[in-house]
Design a protein that fits this description.
Elements (H helix, E strand, L loop, with lengths): L2 E7 L11 E8 L2 H9 L8 E4 L5 E3 L2 E9 L4 E6 L3 E7 L4 H11 L14 H7 L2 E2 L2 E2 L4 E8 L4 E6 L20 E11 L9 H7 L7 H15 L7 E2 L8 E2 L1 H10 L5 E4 L2 E4 L1 H7 L6 E2 L2 E3 L7 E3 L5 H19 L8 E3 L4
Parallel strand pairs: 2-5, 3-5, 4-20
Antiparallel strand pairs: 1-2, 6-7, 7-12, 8-9, 10-11, 10-12, 13-19, 14-16, 15-16, 17-18, 18-19
The chain binds uridine-diphosphate-2(N-acetylglucosaminyl) butyric acid (EPU).
Length: 340
């Protein structure tokens, strides 16, 4: 049933642990709830924001609109043959439960994305990625409600505008679509993806690896570098890894032979964590937020920090990276409720 609260605290709905108050909080548990919410007039263009696990957000002190919390549940096999199956998961399912449930059932393809905070809906909006796999590699289609047309739409993968941590649903044009479920293609036979160096270093390239072992190892690597939000508020990787031209890469590499980077389409992707680290930010604090001591890409809440403080810290870091390396780093985390 649709639940609507006014002047609601979002403290428990964002992993950064920021105490934001929303004018309206709507908890959506079904497609019918979303249609009802849309009819109620609480979803004016530009006047709402959708959240799942709230794990990629920096909230202002207040949000003067409607926060739509997707809480619909359900996982079902919708197609199957000898080799593959298509599994549909509701947007409100916890991503990590979904991944672990799939591994346990012998459905393979997303196991490298284990332990990423957030929901299934966010996986498709954000195109989450880790250890050589991105959500888009496995997404078959995304079902969404078009708030403008008050109609349901199914997007095929190539209609979702996917790129590195990128999709059409993240931008103004696409915000009219509220994702309600995602279909993933799973293999019945496990084919390990062992392209990520840190993972190969840990596991070797043994041909006999099983999905449970690989996902357990990934989980261990993740938690050795990233703080658990329940222990220290954070939004995962705060910045995206920037892509620079080959000429810029060569120039930097000459100056910094240990530069962490790898080749991608259109240039070289630099490790933002490395750049921030080399600017001396790792482990530093500013007010009540700071840079995590084990991974410079992660900003943390050291207790009671505000979104504004996080914004200022992120700005200072990006400025230092620009001055030292001549490289622009963009935030991966999304800012909500700030006026400019
Ligand atoms: N590095 C440093 N200092 C640091 C952090 C990193 O020198 O403080 C260096 C590392 O030594 C390594 C390189 O930077 O050579 C890359 O670091 P890492 O392997 O930890 O990966 P990342 O680029 O920092 C990305 C994703 C993560 C994902 C991992 C594993 C982005 C923005 N982040 O991190 O995603 O888990 O790769 O695939 O692409 C997330 O999006 O929230 C997230 C955690």
């Amino acid at each position: 049933m649709l639940s609507i609260t006014t002047d609601a605290s979002l403290l428990n709905y964002n992993t950064f642990g920021i105490d934001c108050r929303a004018k309206t909080l709507a908890v959506v548990s079904s497609e019918g709830d979303l249609e009802e919410l849309s009819r109620s007039g609480l979803l004016p263009s530009g006047g709402y924001v959708v959240i799942g696990g709230g794990s990629n957000l920096v909230l202002a002190e207040r949000y003067e609109g409607t926060v739509v919390l997707m809480a619909n549940k359900g996982i079902a096999v919708v197609e199957e043959n000898d080799d593959e199956l298509i599994v549909e998961a509701a947007a409100g399912e916890v991503w990590d439960h979904f991944v672990k449930g799939c591994v346990a059932k012998g459905w393979y393809g997303i196991e490298n994305l284990v332990a990423i905070p957030g929901t299934v809906g966010a996986s498709a909006v954000q195109n989450i990625g880790a250890y050589g796999v991105e959500a888009k590699d496995r997404i078959v289609s995304v079902r969404a409600y078009d708030v403008c047309e008050k109609a349901w739409v199914d997007f095929k993968t190539d209609e979702c505008g996917y790129g590195y941590r990128e999709s059409r649903f993240k931008h103004n044009e696409g915000k009219r679509y509220i994702v309600t479920s995602v279909r993933y293609r799973m293999d019945k036979t496990y084919k390990p993806v062992l392209t990520y160096k840190a993972l190969v270093d840990e596991l070797g390239s043994a041909a006999t690896l099983d999905a449970a072992t690989v996902s357990r190892t990934i989980e261990e690597i993740r938690w050795s570098k990233l703080p658990k939000p329940e222990v220290k508020g954070n939004a995962g990787s705060f910045f995206k890894n920037p892509v620079v031209s080959e000429a810029k890469f060569e120039e930097l590499k000459k100056q910094y032979p240990d530069l962490a980077a790898h080749k991608v389409d259109g240039g070289f992707k630099l490790a933002a964590g490395w750049l921030i680290d080399r600017c001396g930010w790792k482990g530093r604090t500013m007010g009540s937020c700071g840079v995590y001591e084990k991974q410079a890409l992660v900003l943390v809440n050291n207790g009671g920090c505000s979104g504004q403080e996080v914004r200022e810290l992120a700005g200072r870091i990006a400025e230092d990276v620009k001055v030292k390396f001549g490289v622009t780093i963009d935030c991966e985390a999304e800012f909500v409720g700030f006026l400019n």
